[in-house]
Specification:
By secondary structure, this protein is α/β, with parallel strands linked by helices. It is built from 20 helices and 8 strands. It has 2 domains: 193 residues, EAL domain (TIM Barrel), CATH 3.20.20; 199 residues, no CATH class. The protein has an 8-stranded mixed sheet with strand order 1-2-3-4-5-6-7-8. InterPro entries: dGMP_Pdiesterase_EAL/HD-GYP (IPR014408), HDOD (IPR013976), RNase_Y/CdgJ (IPR052340).
Length: 407
């Protein structure tokens, strides 16, 4: 099993839902999976077992989740596969679900059972044919490059006033700004929120400078724990986060100072915690998905170290994943951003030049995030990587992220 979550944003670039994309097998190991064999076991909806096993709160916090269904899996016994609140699941149909009685009856039954419904990959030319299907939909995914939104707004508001429009393939900030200005869409999906910065701002805010100083201290080969503790003491938010972390790890510790709390963690754990907590704080003025992306990449990269035969570089992989969006965080090109923090030559080569072993892991992660399953499968074959180890690495990173922000 492979699975990943792709965010959907509102007009304020706040995440409102996730699309869960999953694949059961490696298509390169079993080419027939791309043909009729892809329907084997189709009664089990890929993704529902993940939600059931992990819990929807671990997976997506308070956000709804879109789960793909097709003309066969639509008839699966969804209730037995997943006991989550029906309203939190949005069943995302593709155009194999036809405007025929058996499909329409099934959609009506699911709707009556409390599920939300969505449609994707429906050509404009078939809108009229799909009238009875679309009347049951809560959302429709539209490729904004292939549709005139001014006409779409009029069409949907008149015929389907309750359907919400979702713009997909929004891959630049300019596209997002134009779509938001024109109006009509409720949700936006694409990579517009993480486009690399090509020209930096002249100054970095004083608060961020303080955080960068702390990063540089702890990423020295043998950093001074007390000096790090003193810098943490300058920031109330970090002090609170540190005390919460220590309190979760110890019982009746009787912490008397910030230095004492730092000493309770020890140098190794303090270094990892600071890199994680400070990066999160640096993202405070960015879309919340940037924080999530940075932290999940860090843990996912660390977890993938054994699969890539790089167990000795797990800490370096963690840091590479963490800093892979540093250009977004500091509003500077990646080379300028990395000039401000102390990182290894391997990390610089991976993030700036896309070279070296670390870069191979980052490339794998980026394809995984996009649900580019064929490329992910190809790389797993070349490296003899087991699918389950990748899936477990990703799921563990989701659980780690949840626990990181546990109260």
């Amino acid at each position: 099993m492979l699975a990943t979550l792709i965010p959907l944003f509102d007009e304020n670039i706040a995440v409102r839902a996730y699309s869960l994309f999953a694949q059961k097998r490696n298509s390169f190991l079993d080419p027939s999976f791309l043909g009729t064999a892809s329907y084997d076991g189709i009664g089990v909806i890929a993704g529902l077992d993940i939600i059931q096993g992990m819990g929807i709160e671990t997976l997506s916090a308070d956000k709804d989740v879109f789960v793909e269904v097709n003309n066969i899996s639509l008839f699966a016994d969804i209730n037995s596969q997943c006991s989550v609140d029906h309203e939190r699941l949005i069943l995302l149909c593709d155009n194999t679900v036809l405007p025929e009685k058996m499909y329409i009856d099934r959609l009506k039954a699911l709707k009556a059972d409390g599920y939300q419904l969505a449609m994707k990959k429906l050509p404009v030319a078939r809108f009229e044919i799909y009238r009875e299907v679309l009347s049951l939909m809560d959302y429709i995914f539209l490729d904004h490059k292939k549709i005139d939104i001014s006409k779409a707004k009029i069409y949907f508001s008149k015929i389907y006033p309750n359907i919400k429009l979702c713009a997909v393939n929004v891959n630049t900030q300019e596209e997002f700004d134009t779509l938001r200005k024109d109006g009509g869409y409720t949700l936006y999906e694409g990579e517009f929120y993480r486009i690399p910065v090509t020209r930096g701002q002249e100054e970095v805010s004083p608060l961020k400078v303080n955080y960068i100083e702390l990063l540089n201290i702890v990423n020295d080969d043998d950093f001074d724990l007390t000096k790090a503790a003193d810098i943490i003491g300058r920031d109330t938010a970090l002090v609170i986060l540190l005390l919460k972390m220590v309190n979760r790890m110890t019982v009746n510790s009787g912490i008397t100072s910030i230095r004492h709390a730092a000493a309770m963690l020890g140098q190794k754990e303090l270094k990892k915690w600071i890199n994680t907590a400070v990066t999160s704080e640096l993202c405070a003025d960015k879309p919340n998905e940037v924080t999530r992306l940075s932290l999940l990449r860090a843990k996912f990269a660390e977890n993938l170290a054994p699969a890539f035969e790089m167990a000795g570089h797990s800490s370096e992989l963690f840091l590479m994943g963490l800093f892979s969006v540093l250009d977004l965080i500091l509003d500077k090109p990646m080379d300028e951003a990395l000039d401000m923090v102390k990182v290894s030559k391997n990390i610089r080569e991976a993030l700036i030049d896309d070279k070296g072993e670390l870069a191979e892991v980052l490339d794998f992660i980026e394809h995984y995030e996009r649900a580019s399953w064929q490329e992910v499968s190809r790389q797993m074959i070349l490296r003899n990587i087991d699918m389950n180890s990748v899936y477990n690495a990703y799921v563990d990173s989701l659980k780690w992220y949840r626990d990181l922000f546990a109260k």
